[in-house]
Specification:
globular, four-stranded parallel β-sheet, alpha/beta, Rossmann fold
Length: 79
């Protein structure tokens, strides 16, 4: 089973480049353009790592990370 990465990046071009790079290196990627669905994805998918943009529209990356930790999610996060 391939590792699954949750990529949260609002810049469409940067998200596409990162996703392409990760897929080329054998990883499965779930891409989001904002943090609104992060908790939902984490609850229903087996995610090995979250790559989280710091400056997102609406809720920023730090707030999303704090919310994930408060919910008990143990997934590693890189910002």
């Amino acid at each position: 089973m391939r590792s699954r990465i949750l990529l949260v990046e609002d810049d469409l071009r940067a998200r596409a480049l990162l996703e392409e790079f990760l897929v080329r290196h054998g990883l499965s990627v779930i891409s989001l353009g904002s943090g609104e669905q992060v908790a939902e994805v984490i609850s229903r998918e087996c995610v090995s790592l979250v790559l989280l943009d710091l400056m997102l529209p609406g809720e920023d990356g730090v707030s999303i990370c704090k919310r994930l930790r408060a919910s008990g999610a143990k997934v590693p996060v890189i910002m």
